[in-house]
Design a protein that fits this description.
Layout: H1 3-21, H2 57-60, E1 62-69, E2 80-88, E3 94-101, E4 107-116, E5 124-128, E6 131-132, E7 136-137, E8 142-150, E9 156-160, E10 167-171, H3 178-190, E11 199-200
Antiparallel strand pairs: 1-2, 1-10, 1-11, 2-3, 3-4, 4-5, 5-8, 6-7, 8-9, 9-10
């Protein structure tokens, strides 16, 4: 094999790996949602989730704590203290730095780049974690990042995916009150999500164990409560 052919092969291999890794940002893996928490679920809406009408990137950037998220394979090593830090670049994109704590106490991190795909609202982004030498960021290997809801003071945010494969509750602090969690859980239900699919993330100064979000919000079936 020629040197050129070897280099092309290496780039293709790295690209394929990046495609798989880019399918998610950060989420807690394990434990699985208990069987009793998956009964009597509300039917998922056929339409994609609604996104926030407007997002101020200057207020949105900064550090966020993961409160709960849909478990994903690539974060199976994350056991606690998962955070995301966003920085707006001079080109109008968003630099992403995700990190979490492993069972051995060491930090695991990943760097990505978010690109706005809906400039009218700034609520829809594509995020890539594949940055190839000489070729730069590869957005063919990117994932959807939809900001479904953000608090007026930008203290909390709900992140989703058009197919609802992913979902996150993010906050500026490592702990949220039960009332705030209940309100965010209801918003997830209204968006066609099942809160039982989201697993809480232990945080220093916050929750201490992983458990289905619905067990904390008093709505174990994930069904919408009646007013």
């Amino acid at each position: 094999m020629t040197k050129q052919g070897f280099l092309i092969g290496r780039l293709l291999a790295i690209s394929c790996l990046g495609l798989f890794m880019s399918q998610g940002l950060w989420a807690a893996a394990e434990p699985q949602t208990p069987p009793e928490a998956t009964t009597q679920l509300p039917p998922l809406s056929q339409a994609p989730p609604q996104t926030a009408p407007s997002v101020d990137l200057n207020q949105y950037t900064g550090k966020w704590y993961e409160i709960a998220a849909i478990p994903m394979y690539f974060e199976r090593k994350c056991v606690a203290n998962t955070t995301a830090e966003y920085t707006q670049t001079t080109s109008g994109e968003v630099s992403v730095f995700n990190s979490c704590e492993k069972s051995n106490g060491k930090r695991l991190s990943a760097v990505g780049l978010g690109r706005i795909v809906d400039p009218q609202s700034n609520a829809k982004l594509k995020v890539s974690f594949l940055n190839l030498p000489l070729l730069g960021w590869q957005f063919w290997a990117s994932g959807h990042y939809w900001i479904m809801d953000v608090a007026p003071d930008y203290s909390t945010a709900l992140i989703g995916h058009p197919d609802r494969k992913y979902g996150w509750i993010l906050a500026r602090t490592p702990q949220l009150s039960t009332e705030t969690l209940k309100a965010l859980s209801q918003k997830l239900v209204q968006q066609g999500y099942n809160p039982c699919d989201l697993i809480t993330m232990p945080q220093a100064g916050g929750l201490t164990s992983k458990q289905p979000l619905c067990t904390l919000t008093g709505n174990p079936t994930g069904a919408a409560t009646q007013p």
